[in-house]
Amino acid sequence: MAVTKTHPIKSTLKAAIDYICNPNKTDGKLLVSSFGCAAETADIEFEWTRRHSIDKGTHLGRHLIQAFEPGEVSAEEAHEIGMQLAKEILGGKYEFVLTTHIDKGHIHNHLIFNAVSFTDHKHYHSNKRSYHEIRRASDRLCREHGLSVIVSGQDRGKSYIEHQAAQNGTSFKAKLKAAIDRLIPVSSSLDDLLTRLQREGYEIKHGKYISARAPDQERFTRLKTLGADYTEEAIATRIAGGPRPSRQPQQRSGKVSLLIDIQNNIKAQQSAGYQRWATIENLKRAAATMNFLTEHGIGSYEELVERCDAIAAASIRTRESLRDTEQRISDLSLLEKQIDTYRKLKPVYDRYKASKDKEKFLRGFESEIILFEAAAREIKKAGLTKLPSAEKLKAELDGLAARKTAFQAELRKVQREEKEYDDVLKNINMLLSEKTRGIEKNNLEL
């Protein structure tokens, strides 16, 4: 799966929306969805929202493409993922049209959204931060659906030329990394490895940092620029049998971390140095686990399981409460938009109804009439017989926003606890399996 960077729509918005809604590409428009607007009138509704914005910007909208690995996902599932992504990254603040194209060898989503929010009329700012947020959200959703993703950071720091060279197997950095990886198992020290690199034609330069240059290479490459696994300290540690820094679990002081299953760890079987490190690390993690049980007053396996179940249940309840609150905010924000449109265009519509030449009036105010009638339909659908005041709607939305913030903070707290208790339970299971040899866990005191 890959997501392209969102790009601006500067030309005709209607043409862009018509293109992504092409029936031949979207299974007769079955794979077309929208939010805050109708796909058929999205360009009009986008423009109406922009009309009330101070910071309109220069772009009519944003166009995002989400592509999937060929043969990995159905059109319906891809569309569902696209809707989840759109709602998450846009937060229910921007009108959008989502379509899923099936006319090519790979299924992909097109998302066009308004460059201006209909809730606060602020302009959407597309930058590196927003792009990476989209990528992270898309990757997470695809993993949740069991789909492949681009490994984050695998090309970090590479120029386009380096990326192409790496793809073709000709990158100097890629070759140097491969040479170091190949020589580490047969080297006795860092100096020994550098000597072996020289025998293979590399020129070594010593200074503040060690650098190497291949025979046909113009400039030296500092080893530390190859990544965390290729600094002088990391190479020396790897030669001694230690783990790669990039694969070594990040240890948080005083926190519980999962025990390393040395018995089934291939690297531990192949490297005595790694096995020694893992054994010492496991002693530290086991001690942290037992300290956790003592600090939380847990004296039996059953009590630990009960705590884990209680935390998991609290996590589910908080997540559901947050989801319900977010849905209510989304529904109320859309209703607020329709009520605002209704009120602003009611005088125009009244003049239209009173006009003796409705066709002529319609030619001059077609967009306004379309928007008013659409707003009236949504208000009727909501079952409102009397329009609430703008102040009342705002007060309710402010209250919901405060509840959402509180639920988000509570969910983060509960999820941290859930992860910690889960790690503790896994560690205890591993310790007991090694210690009890088949004795029932429920009969053991921790």
Account of the protein in words:
The protein is α+β, with helices and mostly antiparallel strands and 446 residues long. The protein is built from 14 helices and 9 strands. It has helices spanning 13-20, 42-51, 75-90, 128-144, 160-167, 172-183, 190-199, 232-239, 266-270, 272-295, 301-354, 358-364, 366-381, 390-436, and strands at 2-3, 7-9, 32-35, 61-67, 96-101, 108-114, 203-205, 211-213, 221-222. The strands form 2 sheets. Strands 1, 2, 3, 4, 5 and 6 form a 6-stranded antiparallel sheet that branches. α11 (301-354) runs antiparallel to α14. The relative contact order is 0.07. Residues 152-169 and 436-444 have low confidence and may be disordered.
Helix-strand makeup class: alpha+beta
* Beta-strand proportion: 5-15%
Helix content: 40-55%
What's the number of extended β-strand segments? 9
Radius of gyration computed on alpha carbons: 30 Å
Outline, from the CA principal axes? extended
How are the SSEs placed, and which strands pair?
Blueprint: E1 2-3, E2 7-9, H1 13-20, E3 32-35, H2 42-51, E4 61-67, H3 75-90, E5 96-101, E6 108-114, H4 128-144, H5 160-167, H6 172-183, H7 190-199, E7 203-205, E8 211-213, E9 221-222, H8 232-239, H9 266-270, H10 272-295, H11 301-354, H12 358-364, H13 366-381, H14 390-436
Antiparallel strand pairs: 1-4, 2-4, 3-5, 4-6, 5-6, 7-8, 8-9
Helix pairs in contact: 3-4, 10-14, 11-13, 11-14
